[in-house]
Each structure stands twice: as structure tokens, then as C-alpha cells.
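Minutes, project huddle
Topic: does the predicted pose make sense with pyridoxal-5'-phosphate bound?
PN asked that the exact inputs be recorded in the minutes so nobody has to dig through chat later. Recorded below.
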Amino acid sequence: MYNSAIKEKISCLDLKGQHQQIKSEVFEAFDKVYESTSFSGGTFVQEFETEFAQFCKVKYAVGVNNGTSALHLTMLALGIGPGDEVIVPANTFIATAWGVSYTGAKPVFVDCTSDTWEIDASQIKNKITANTKAVIGVHLYGQPFDIESVAKVCKEHGLFLIEDAAQAHGALYKGTPVGGFGEMACFSFYPGKNLGACGEGGGITTNNETYYTHLLSLRNHGCTVRYFHDEVGFNMRMGGLEGASLNVKLKYLPQWNSRRQEIAGKYQEGIKNSKIKMQVQPEWSKSVYHLFVITTEDKTGLTEYLSEKGIIPGLHYPVPCHLQKAYTHLGYKVGDFPNAEYLSNHCLSLPMYAELTDDDVAYVVNVLNAY
Ligand SMILES: Cc1ncc(COP(=O)(O)O)c(C=O)c1O
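Predicted holo structure (C-alpha cells), as shared on screen:
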């Protein structure tokens, strides 16, 4: 199935192949939503919540309109607000920090390690103040962060632990799926994710009933009984069409993740070029390779070379969070987080999605080895 010829252009991500395969099934599901007019929340979203909670081996899942809202509501459910601080890795997609900022709290950034590129647990202590309430660890590029080390610091200092699992649906930490290690975990179902809706989507998983019931209310205008509003809430419900598409796609996720792992294995074994470095995979982590990021000294040179060969790499991410213009007021400067800054200046993302053929992958490997 994965052995056909090399594509004309191999992009970092291409969603068309996947959606052609499942189109009729998704359209059948859309038809059911249409017939029942369950367009906002409703049975299809509930069905997805039940299935996704089981997939993550947790008690509860709450579907919302996107992953950024998941992070926002998680902060609110913890009671985080103005005057509070939340520790966030500098090397992540900016939305990890947005949820903190939306509440009026302050994101406090911390560097990543130089090899796994995940939050550096040993640096967290230096960032804790009397105002620190929580740490958000990110399972970046699909690979679980060092959960036990981060959880230990949180326990010692009485901090909440939140997982940003937006890129890691189905990733395993010591054999257990991510999503149940902290107070709550946040997922994105943006179309490009390993599990992506046909539209925008997000979700929160938790084993805590109090957070669960609060999240149900927060996403739905702060009410549990219609037209009675207990607090200022939000309209962050998941749409029925999105829920229905996720129900179809969740069934395929294990096979899509295995294919990503297979491709990653081919890259790891096949690319033998001292000019290219890869993310170190600790033995306790089983990544689902949302992205396959490499670093190289001459990012521009390699990008041009790859483009000439028809390979279009991605960039995740070109500017670390602490140096984003939006956070100028926090007073960070170049040099504050050398590992995150090195990554942003030297990273490229190789093509990574389940529908790449073996020939595509072999071609990428050969091109990189000839560089
Ligand atoms: C690490 C991380 N956190 C949060 C998000 C936000 O998710 P969304 O785009 O669904 O709002 C994303 C996805 O883009 C992400 O990659």
C-alpha cells in the first residue's frame, strides 16, 4: 500500500491522500449529523468524547472548538488568573502560552534540553516564585516529555501539572498513553494533527470529576441548567460535524501512528550524514512523530538543496516563544534560552505523514545522504 512511486513534490505534510481514503465514510457520518441536525455538541460529540477517553485510558474527555481553547479552559478550571505565573517551555507552538495569557496570568518560559528538545525539568526550579501555580509540559513533535521528573518538581512545590498533548495523540510514556499524567491534558484536533477533525477541534482529558464538570460548564456559557449562568463562561463547544469526522478518524489513528513510526524508523536508520541531527528518543518514550524535526548548521543551504530536489521542509518553529513580539513586554532577550534558540535557528521538519510511500521516504533519505 505504501510502495507506489515517488510523488512529484514531497511536502512536509499533505492531507489529501488520507481524506481521499476515508471520504465516503466521513460523508456518511456527515449525513447522519445533517439528518439529526446535531450541529453543535450533541450525540456525535458525546460519542467521540467517550471513545477518546477510552483511547487515552482516562475517565473523562471534553470536546471543545480548538486546542487553544482547551489550554485556556484548563487554566480557568485550575483557578489561574491575574497575578499567577505558569511555567511553559520556550520551545513550543505559541498556543501553549496563549491559554495562560488569556486568563491574565503570566507565562514564565523555561529552556528545553539540548538533545530531546523537550522541557528541561532541571531548569524548572529556578523559575518558581511565590506566584507560580502550574507547569505545562509539551509532548513536542509527538514525543512525551520527561513526565516523572517534571511531576516530581511539581509535587515538591505544590504546582499543578498540565500536559499539552496537542501533537501527541496516542504517544506512550512508559507504556501508558499520554493524557492522564497531570491534572488535565490538552489536545488539538486541528486538521494537520495526527488526529485532525474536518474543521477545527480540541479536547481536554482528565481523571478528575470536579475539573470535568467545571469544563463542561465553562465551554457552554458557564451553565449546567439552560439559561442559568453560574459564572462567566464561553461558547467553546465542539461542532457536530467535527465530532462525527473525529469518530471516523479515531478508528484509523493506531494504524496511521504506526505508519509514522515506521517512516521515522527509516529516517533514523537510513540518514547517515554528520551534518544532520535528530531528536533523541529516550527509552521510556514512544513517539507518534507528529513532526520529524532535524537540525543542521546551514538551515538555508539545506532548505534550498531540498527544494531543488522537490522536497519541501517545514519549520517548527522559527522563533521561540520568549522572543515572539507578542511577549516583548515580558523582557526576555536573545541568549536567555540557548537550546530553544539554537533549535529555532537550525531546525527543519522532514516530510511526515502516513501516506508517504516507501519510495518517497527512500528518496528523502538518499537526498539527505547526498547532501
Ligand atoms: C503544542 C501545541 N499546543 C497547542 C496547539 C493549539 O491547538 P489549535 O491549533 O487546535 O488551537 C497546537 C496546535 O497548533 C500545538 O501544536
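Observations noted during the meeting:
- Residues 17-247 form a domain with the Aspartate Aminotransferase; domain 2 fold (CATH 3.40.640.10).
- The mean pLDDT is 97.
No decisions taken; revisit at the next huddle.
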